[in-house]
Design brief:
The complex is a heterodimer of chains A (about 500) and B (about 150). By secondary structure, chain A is an all-alpha fold. Chain A is about 75% helix and about 0% strand. Chain A is built from 22 helices and no strands. The longest helix of chain A is centred in the first third of the chain and has 36 residues. Chain A is globular. In chain B, helix 1 runs antiparallel to helix 2, helix 3 runs antiparallel to helix 4 and helix 4 packs across helix 5. Chain B is an all-alpha fold and about 150 residues long. Chain B has two domains: about 60 residues; about 60 residues, no CATH class. The chains are: A mainly alpha (about 500), B mainly alpha (about 150). Chains A and B meet through helix 8, helix 9, helix 17, helix 18 and helix 19 of A and helix 1, strand 2, helix 2, helix 3 and helix 4 of B.
């Protein structure tokens, strides 16, 4: 059995004392940083890169992978506790996780998130080990039109997922795509919408937008309400662990999420994000009580958490085998490899098998560390909630402000965040939901590049999307989704499902 | 004509304005052609789409019956000004006055956004958070933050 041999080789590397230590260090640091809102894995890894030179490449990558998972998990923790998704992929977790926390079930939500993540991580690691080679073939099948169609499907999915008005959610996606246009054009290197401000030519940071819209906008809206109507925690926190019924409800959801995450994670683009968004949509469709979603349904935490963790795992496949980064974090990992003299690409698997398999098995070790580290800490995180809001909100503000500033040690980002705070407040007042905007913003530049390449390829003929089977299927799915919403009968039901709580 | 949903009316107007601004701005860049799209192609299309969506929302705000005009409600000026002001102040003051002055000051301004504001609590909070963040971010994570006035 090749697989077993390979895994054995991997565990030899990853279970060595020194590498275990680095995995622990990475996971610890990652969690800490993920819990602090706004200090995402990108900032952390970028910060750590200089100190990586002295480490052995395998240990360094293992530690970086630990930071990556830790931050991902930490991001979900803040999403659940204070409705601040530390990462794009935990935006979905915030939807139901935060509601669970408000109902006093933060412990159960956190434990569910940790356990589903661990489960998904275990399966994901096996999938990476078993299917890395064949799955890359699948990614090869994807040309520009397919990517484009996939992203379109993802965006439509986000619109369907949003609560409230369909057309408003659509407008949010388009606005997100437009904000993503503030950058330097990838093909012609023309700076767009930058008004000669040098900071804008690199585009606005995701963190700035997310913090402005989610944290600051939310704080303003909360403070605007009289204390008794405030959108914050209940004091009483019951049961730190999930009940038997929780497990029964969340286990199948976690399995489906894992499956979806494994498949979607491979696709360069926004694999884990798409996976978490779409798994949430699927769970809501399958649920016996869809009206519970958005009000603290445990499946709404288990499925996206499993999906994004499985996706985060399989996202390593294109990076390890093709040297294609699937996200900003992966790009940094590739940067780290190059810094240490390893040329990423298909040859890594053969030329440096202990690194390749060591990294893959250390993903599992990292996930295990996270569970061991986080289950006991749940009690502490939950205690944080009992801090009165008048102490809590300045603290959230303070950490966010530091996080925004240290993104690039530039006060421009702080001003930008202030602007998005106003916009976030406006959205709150006008009944817009910011989550679709975030997805649009992240996918925008990728989608544009692929659309333009498609058109170039097809000499301006849009029908290319229909003549390529994979692309056509995905577009058909997207159209089906829209029709499903537009149909009056379903629409009525949907409105029942999504009555927004004021 | 009667505005049946104030929220949607304002939303529609804003979206049309933003969409139009992006679309008009995009004309500064090479539009290209369908077979060779330039940097202006995508933003122009998206801006137009956003403006159209804004028009649709505007239209529904005038036709569909909202609940009692669906008012926007009062704007909480105090938290709005305090939170945004605190951020702008922090951005302005950090490079000039350093972390040890601008950070606690920002926290006090932020705290003033709450109706439950009390000087004692705010100052206590500011001191604790400054010490904590200093230890964590400046000494622990070695982030490059100026501590003292420049």
């Amino acid at each position: 059995m090749d697989l077993l041999n390979n895994l054995a080789l991997g565990f030899q590397t990853s279970l060595s004392l020194i590498n275990l230590w680095y995995a622990f260090l990475g996971a610890m640091l990652g969690t800490l940083i993920g819990v602090l809102p706004g200090l995402g894995p990108i900032a952390t890894i970028a910060m750590l890169l200089p100190s990586m030179y002295s480490l052995e490449p395998t240990s360094a990558l293992i530690m970086l992978a630990g930071v990556f998972y830790g931050a991902q998990y930490g991001g979900s923790t803040t999403a659940i506790l204070i409705n601040v998704p530390g990462e794009a992929s935990s935006v979905v977790t915030a939807l139901d996780g935060y509601q669970m926390a408000r109902r006093g079930r933060a412990g159960a939500a956190l434990a569910t998130a940790a356990l589903s993540s661990f489960f998904a991580g275990t399966i994901g690691t096996l999938v990476v080990a078993a299917f890395a080679p064949p799955l890359t073939e699948l990614a090869f099948e994807f040309g520009a039109p397919e990517y484009c169609a996939l992203m379109f499907l993802g965006l439509i999915g986000a619109v369907v997922l949003a609560s409230g008005s369909f057309i408003k959610a659509l407008a949010m996606v388009v606005l997100g795509l437009l904000l993503g246009q503030i950058n330097t054009d990838a093909i012609t290197a023309v700076p767009r919408f930058s008004f000669d401000i040098p900071e804008l030519t690199d585009g606005i940071s995701f963190v700035v937008i997310a913090m402005g819209l989610f944290s600051f906008g939310e704080i303003i809206a909360n403070l605007g309400k009289p204390p008794q109507h405030r959108d914050v925690m209940v004091k009483r926190v019951s049961g730190l662990m999930p009940t038997a019924q929780d497990v029964r409800e969340s286990a199948p959801a976690a399995c489906r999420g894992t499956l979806l995450g494994c498949v979607l994670g491979v696709l360069p683009g926004a694999g884990p994000i798409l996976a978490s968004f779409s798994s949430y949509t699927i769970e809501k469709k399958l649920a016996r009580h869809p009206e519970e979603f958005g009000k603290g349904a445990i499946q709404g935490v288990a499925a996206p958490e499993a999906a994004n963790n499985a996706g985060a795992q399989t996202a390593f496949i294109p990076m390890l085998t093709l040297g294609i980064p699937t996200s900003a974090v992966m790009a940094l990992m590739i940067g780290a490899m190059t810094l240490m003299g390893i040329q990423p690409g298909p040859q890594v698997m053969t030329s440096n098998p202990s690194l390749f398999w060591g990294l893959i098995t250390s993903m599992w070790v990292g996930n295990l560390m996270l569970v061991i580290l986080n289950l006991p800490l749940i009690g502490i995180w939950v205690k944080l909630l009992t801090v009165p809001y008048r102490f809590l909100f300045p603290a959230i503000m303070a950490f966010c402000a530091i996080g925004v500033y240290t993104l690039s040690n530039n006060t421009f980002d702080v001003y930008c965040a202030a602007a998005f705070a106003v916009i976030g407040f406006l959205f709150h007042k006008l009944g817009f939901e910011p989550a679709p905007l975030i997805l649009g913003f992240i996918l925008g530049p990728m989608m544009e590049e692929n659309l333009r390449r498609t058109l170039l390829m097809a000499r301006g003929d849009w029908s290319i999307f229909l003549s390529r089977p994979i692309a056509a299927t995905m577009l058909a799915l997207a159209v089906a989704l829209v029709i499903a919403i537009a149909l009056p009968a379903i629409r009525k039901k949907r409105e029942e499902v999504f009555v927004e709580e004021e | 004509m009667k505005i049946r949903s104030q929220r949607d009316f304002v939303s529609g107007v804003l979206l049309v304005a933003v969409g139009a601004a992006f679309a008009i701005g995009a004309t500064n860049y090479d539009f290209g052609s369908a077979s060779r799209p330039g940097p202006g192609y995508f933003p122009f299309g998206l801006g137009t789409l956003l403006a159209v969506l804004g028009l649709v929302i505007l239209y529904t705000s005038l036709t569909r019956n909202g609940n009692n005009g669906d008012p926007i409600g009062k704007i909480p000026w105090r938290p709005l000004l305090c939170i945004v002001g605190a951020l702008v102040f922090f951005g302005f003051a950090l490079p000039r006055l350093g972390f040890l002055i601008s950070f606690p000051a920002m926290i006090v301004i932020t705290s003033a956004g709450s109706r439950e504001f009390a000087w004692r609590d705010a100052l206590l909070n500011a001191v604790i958070l400054t010490v904590l963040s200093c230890g964590l971010f400046v000494y622990g994570l070695q982030l490059n933050i100026p501590l003292w006035p420049a």
